[in-house]
Design goal:
With 480 residues, this protein is of the alpha+beta class. It has 15 helices and 19 strands. Helix 2 links the parallel strand 1 and strand 2.
């Protein structure tokens, strides 16, 4: 398609920036209400971070009702607000939670089938909804709707600027395709560009103390460079929750598979000084463990286990990183060798050899291991009260070790919105016709991602997109 045909006489009631979960949910919802919608996506494929979503959080969904899951919307609202110490926008949280179960119903009617899983043992509520092929299945369903509803999804096209009328409301979007710019007239804009997790300059600006190296295992986030947030600020939007990051792990930088056993609760974590610094189980919450690692010298730690523990993982399975699966010894060896070749892991016949590789005085490491082994023998961790179920002594060589770091998945916050997903200006008033959702929006998640509501990223993206789409369509249709 040549450029002239691609952009000839383009105009829309609603222009959506970003073809991820939030953007496509918004586009489909607005189109279903009768609005003419165009979606702008700078990548050659749609999906955004939702493509990598491992599940979607929702409560009081049809799936849960069929399985008689007892928790309610009120229960989850209380969990989220107490976890955040009421630092979040309670109306936004309530709007997302109330929309969440209906969003699963909405997707089921598009042909998706969900199962409920626990991310870690004893996780409650049972609310992580996983479709076959997970996020990609959701994106495929929404793209199918876009095609059927006549929504134009312009790929390889970057939004450059939101244009506004004297009133401050949007009246166009400048977009760039093959280095040439075009203006698409519109009455409303919905921002869903995925945050700024791929922008080192914005991370440095908004996130004091952010890790100096990028240890993300989600390569997609590198394209999320804050375009939507920048454009919103240019038209007077206020900010909310800038600096909130979604960490997980800790992770092994060079190998995702090697990360699985080293994050298990039956390992021991020590810092560069050779000291334990937290409970390795950390209540099995992979989103809070990095907080402890961030406090350590170099913002890293060493995770260690012995041959007996490895065999335990092979025989009894993994609990924390890939619950219900067993460690594959062949894949583990290959992965560990790859990490070792890059200086990130190793296998050692003695604690002295291990200490030398870690650059820790052997006596200090032996004292730490001996103290830990004594706790294991007593079945009581006198230091951090680690769950006794996961206390396994380190006595049988070889010893396996890996350097572990906070894993950074995305940013959570940026643009100030209200519970209608309307973008707010510096005077805390809505900017008419401008909406935002997903990771571009602030006020829905705290400084530490809530493990009890794992799947919030995907769940909020879809629910906030739907709410934004409904309100944007109502706004433009009332103005006709």
């Amino acid at each position: 398609m040549n450029r002239a045909n691609r952009y000839e006489k383009l105009e829309a009631d609603v222009v959506v920036l970003g073809a991820g979960g939030a953007g496509l949910a918004a586009a489909v919802t607005a189109a279903n209400k009768g609005a003419k919608v165009i979606v702008i996506e700078k990548r050659p494929i749609p999906g955004g971070a939702t493509l990598f979503a491992g599940g979607t959080f929702a409560i009081e969904s049809p799936v849960q009702k069929r399985l008689k899951v007892p928790e309610t919307k009120d229960d989850v609202f209380k969990i989220v607000m107490q976890h955040s110490h009421w630092t979040l926008n309670a109306r936004i949280v309530r709007a997302w939670i109330d929309k969440s179960g209906d969003t699963i119903d909405w997707l089921e009617k598009k042909g998706l089938n969900f199962r409920l899983i626990r991310l870690y043992p004893d996780q409650t509520p049972l609310a992580l909804h996983c479709a076959e092929k997970n996020g990609s299945a959701i994106i495929n369903a929404l793209m199918k709707d876009c095609n059927e509803l006549g929504v134009k999804v312009l790929l390889n096209t970057r939004a450059v600027k939101i244009l506004t009328a004297k009133s401050g409301s949007p009246n166009g979007v400048t977009v760039k395709y093959q280095e040439k710019e075009t203006v698409i007239p519109t009455k409303s804009v919905i921002i869903g560009t995925g945050g700024y997790g791929g922008s080192k300059s914005l991370l440095k600006k908004y996130c004091p103390g952010y890790i100096s190296r990028d240890y993300s295992i989600n390569t997609l986030k590198k394209i999320h460079n804050g375009d939507g947030i920048r454009m919103a600020f240019q038209v007077g939007a206020a900010s909310d929750s800038l600096g909130h990051l979604l960490f997980h792990g800790p992770v092994v930088e060079t190998s995702r598979f090697a990360w699985f056993p080293f994050i298990e609760a039956c390992t021991i974590w020590v810092n560069r000084e050779g000291d334990r610094f937290m409970s390795e189980s950390a209540d099995f919450n992979p989103f809070e463990s990095p907080n402890g690692v961030l406090r350590q010298p170099g913002q890293m730690c060493f995770s260690i286990f012995d041959e007996d523990t490895k065999q335990y993982m092979v025989t009894n399975g993994l609990d924390r990183s890939q619950a219900g699966t067993h460690l594959d010894p062949i894949k583990f060896k290959e992965s560990l060798n790859n990490a070792a070749a890059k200086g990130e892991a190793g296998t050692f016949k003695s604690l002295d050899e291990l200490a030398k590789w870690m650059k820790i005085a052997p006596q200090i490491l032996r004292e730490t291991i001996n103290e830990y082994n004594a706790y294991c023998d007593e079945k009581h961790d006198h230091l951090f009260f680690k769950n006794s179920k996961y206390l396994r002594a380190l006595r049988k060589p070889p010893y396996y070790v890996a350097k572990c770091y906070p894993g950074h998945l995305s940013t959570l916050g940026g643009i100030k919105i209200n519970h209608r997903m309307e973008v707010m200006n510096q005077d805390c008033k809505p900017i008419p016709g401008l909406y935002a959702g997903g990771n571009d929006a602030g006020g829905f998640a705290g400084t530490s991602y809530n493990g009890q509501t794992a799947g919030t990223g995907s769940g909020f993206a879809l629910a906030s997109g739907r709410i934004a789409g409904e309100n944007a369509a109502n706004y433009v249709l009332l103005s006709r």
